């Protein structure tokens, strides 16, 4: 069903190196620990960090924090397995695998390759659609913030999402012409700075609210049945909160593609492990701060998002700036998640039609201020069509973020846990039924249960969203 174009090595290992290319004949990789860390932080710290107060309100202080740290450890642990699989059969001197599918093909083979491709690429496409919606919500929040500032907090302020979605799409059409993941570093650095900025603003505003003493009611067990929620709502919201936390770390979807940007010395797997540790550690600190301080500020009535749902109204200029940072971050994050899918489609087309000039020929042109740019007609047409498609879907289905929660639930287990653990067992030849084998398979089973529970919670949320669905209605 799915295959990946595997470029034959133009230069075999052990041959005389060719200037400007790596040992596999591809363009010289220049990625470092810092660029990989930026890619990870861009992928992991999303605007969802501002919804963690809501998650802790459903789970409680203690359980919420423990679950946050637990999934951070699990994600880092399985990411180290995946990093070791980039080359096969040896993690340092083996043959490169350019994508997640290539890694699964090298170590597991069979129908698992197609399962991996389906889980990965459906998730990547879903994320880009979801980011289009989320970016427009943040931009709408800027307009509403200014309206509330001028007319008062009780004013009926309505701002259309669709012009912002269209503008976001136009920006993505331009950025999508960046040829490959290797050239995204500058965008990821900007996006990472933006994510730190709005997360820090959210934390700062929550601290100020706590200091003012005007805080919401908190409980050791989180939301109270019969007061804040019904018993069934408590259960489904807990499932949803656990799923939100689990998926908030799921960067393994694009880990191999990030690792393929790294220079070969020091060994890619060692650099990737360090970058994963830095990214997950940094993320966890921000998650705990946003979750705990946000819950302390808002209590059991914590909003789904500090900024776009107006947990804060003042200072309005700071709210505007934070929402602008979210939109800028999502511009970069869209590309981080979109590029692997772009390359998957393009490499398959190159394999199928190797003689086509439309698909394969690159044209160079000098653009003022930007220097020399490479243009490929197929890339120009196909990526433009893709961005238009994701933008239109976002406009038609404004509840798509609820669908994205379900996609996250379905892809978390295979991509973050099952495949990395299975490949680690195959690579290191862990003895069947040994204590280590049993422990690893227990981890797989526990995470499968979490994914199933989160999927149920997502389906309940999706049903509610569909019931309230009004085509081409403003989201806010």
UniProtKB/TrEMBL annotation:
Keyword flag Ligase: no
Domain of life: Eukaryota
Chain ranges passing through the membrane: 33-55, 61-78, 121-142, 186-208, 277-297, 317-337, 380-400, 406-426, 438-463
Amino acid transporter transmembrane domain segment(s): 30-463
Subcellular location: Membrane
Major location category of this protein: membrane
Key words, A-Z: Amino-acid transport, Membrane, Transmembrane, Transmembrane helix, Transport
UniProt-listed InterPro entries: AA_transpt_TM (IPR013057)
Pfam families in UniProt: Aa_trans (PF01490)
Annotated spans, Disordered: 1-24
Protein name: Amino acid permease 8-like
Organism the protein comes from: Camelina sativa (False flax)
């Amino acid at each position: 069903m799915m295959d990946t174009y595997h470029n034959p090595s133009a230069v075999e290992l052990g041959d005389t190196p060719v200037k400007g290319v790596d040992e596999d004949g591809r363009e010289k990789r220049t990625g470092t620990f810092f660029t990989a860390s930026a890619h990870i932080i861009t992928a992991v710290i999303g605007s969802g960090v501002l919804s963690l107060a809501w998650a802790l309100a459903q789970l409680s202080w203690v359980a919420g924090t423990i679950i946050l740290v637990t999934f951070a450890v699990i994600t880092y642990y399985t990411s180290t397995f995946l990093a070791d699989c980039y080359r096969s059969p040896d993690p340092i001197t083996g043959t490169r695998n350019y994508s997640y599918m290539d890694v699964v093909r090298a170590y597991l083979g069979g129908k698992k390759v197609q399962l991996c491709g389906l889980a990965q690429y459906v998730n990547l496409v879903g994320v880009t659609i979801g980011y289009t919606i989320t970016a427009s919500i943040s931009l709408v929040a800027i307009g509403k913030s200014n309206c509330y500032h001028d007319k008062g907090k009780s004013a009926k302020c309505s701002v259309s999402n669709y012009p912002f979605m269209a503008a976001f799409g136009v920006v993505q059409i331009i950025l999508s012409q960046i040829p490959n993941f290797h050239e995204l570093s500058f965008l990821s650095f900007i996006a990472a700075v933006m994510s730190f900025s709005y997360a820090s603003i959210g934390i700062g505003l929550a601290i100020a609210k706590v200091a003012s003493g005007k805080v919401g009611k908190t409980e050791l067990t989180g939301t109270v049945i019969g007061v804040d929620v019904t018993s069934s709502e408590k259960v489904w919201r807990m499932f949803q909160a656990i799923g939100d936390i689990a998926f908030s770390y799921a960067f393994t979807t694009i880990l191999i593609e990030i690792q393929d940007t790294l220079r070969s010395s020091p060994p890619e797997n060692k650099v990737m492990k360090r970058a994963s540790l830095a990214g997950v550690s940094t993320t966890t600190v921000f998650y705990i701060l946003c979750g705990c301080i946000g819950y302390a500020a808002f209590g059991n009535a914590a909003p789904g998002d500090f900024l776009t749902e107006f947990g804060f109204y003042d200072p309005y200029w700071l709210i505007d700036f934070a929402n602008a940072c979210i939109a800028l971050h999502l511009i970069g994050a869209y590309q981080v998640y979109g590029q692997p899918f772009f390359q998957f489609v393009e490499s398959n087309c190159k394999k199928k039609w190797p003689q086509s000039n439309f698909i394969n020929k690159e044209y160079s042109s000098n653009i003022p201020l930007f220097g020399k740019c490479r243009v490929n007609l197929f890339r120009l047409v196909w990526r433009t069509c893709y961005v238009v498609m994701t933008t239109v879907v976002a406009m038609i289905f404004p509840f798509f973020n609820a669908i994205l929660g379900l996609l996250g639930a379905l892809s978390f287990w295979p991509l973050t846990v099952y495949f990395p653990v299975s490949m680690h067992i195959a690579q290191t030849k862990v003895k069947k039924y040994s204590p280590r084998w049993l422990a690893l398979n227990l981890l797989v089973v526990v995470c499968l249960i979490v994914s199933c529970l989160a999927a149920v919670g997502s389906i309940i949320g999706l049903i509610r969203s569909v019931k309230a669905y009004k085509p081409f209605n403003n989201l806010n």
